[in-house]
Design brief:
Helix 2 runs antiparallel to helix 3. The protein has three helices and no strands. By secondary structure, it is mostly helical.
Length: 95
């Protein structure tokens, strides 16, 4: 009598299986959530994109200033400022 051998998945295959089950989807738009807080709806995303575009334009022209008034010279700092102002705009629009 032959016994059927069960094929045990490798460590890599097990990680892939587990990671597939961890993907959470948003209830409203049925998209994968990339952040723990949830997904951004279309309105919030458009507000954020507009604010980031405006701030990065200011940086490119050399008109972007930090909170203390100095000119921003670092691209990474400009991105951080843009995202921060974008999040503030989203919170303000929700009131």
């Amino acid at each position: 009598m032959h016994r059927m051998q069960l094929q045990v998945p490798s460590k890599r295959e097990r990680r892939l299986i587990v990671s597939k089950h961890r993907v959470r989807k948003c209830e409203s738009c049925n998209e994968e959530m990339k952040h723990a807080q949830g997904c951004m709806n279309c309105e919030e995303e458009s507000i954020l994109k507009a604010k980031v575009k405006k701030v990065m334009g200011e940086f490119k022209k050399g008109e972007l200033h930090s909170g203390r008034g100095g000119d921003v010279t670092s691209h990474k700092q400009a991105i951080a400022i843009a995202l921060n102002l974008g999040r503030q705009a989203i919170k303000k629009s929700g009131k």
